[in-house]
Amino acid sequence: MSYGSSLSQSYRQAGRLVAKILKGAKPADLPFEQEDKFELVVNNKTTKALALKIPHAFLRYADEVIE
C-alpha cells in the first residue's frame, strides 16, 4: 500500500513554479504550495502473497488497485 501525493500533480506543480522562475520571479518570493491531491494505491498481488485480507470496503476507496 502507498498513500501519498500524486506524482503527475507534483510534476505539474513543479512546472508551474519553473515557469514563474523563468519569467523572472525570485525563488525566495514564491509561496510554499502543499499538495492537495493524495492517492491510495494497493498492490493486491502482494497482499495475497503475504496472506493479508484487505476489506472490499477499503479497496473501494483506493485510487488504484494493482492486480
Roughly how many Å apart are the termini?
12 Å
**Residue share in helix:** 25-40%
Sketch the topology as an H/E string, one letter per element. Answer: EHEHHE
| Integer-rounded radius of gyration | 18 Å
Number of strands: 3
Q: List low-pLDDT spans.
A: none
Biggest β-sheet description: 3 strands, mixed
- In the sheet with the most strands, the strands line up as 1-2-3
Proportion of beta-strand residues: 15-25%
Integer count of domains = 1
Shape from CA axes?
rod-shaped
The number of helical segments is 3
**Mean pLDDT reading:** 91
- Helix-and-strand structural type: alpha+beta
Record the SSE blueprint:
Blueprint: E1 2-5, H1 7-22, E2 38-43, H2 44-49, H3 56-59, E3 64-66
Parallel strand pairs: 2-3
Antiparallel strand pairs: 1-2
Sum this structure up briefly.
The protein is of the alpha+beta class and 67 residues long. The protein contains three helices and three strands, in the order βαβααβ.
Structure explained in plain terms:
The chain is of the alpha+beta class and 67 residues long. The protein has one domain (2-66). The chain has helices spanning 7-22, 44-49, 56-59; strands at 2-5, 38-43, 64-66. The protein has a three-stranded mixed beta sheet. The longest helix is centred in the N-terminal third of the chain and has 16 residues, at 7-22. The chain starts with a strand and ends with a strand. The relative contact order is 0.21.
Properties at a glance:
alpha+beta, three-stranded mixed sheet, 3 strands, rod-shaped
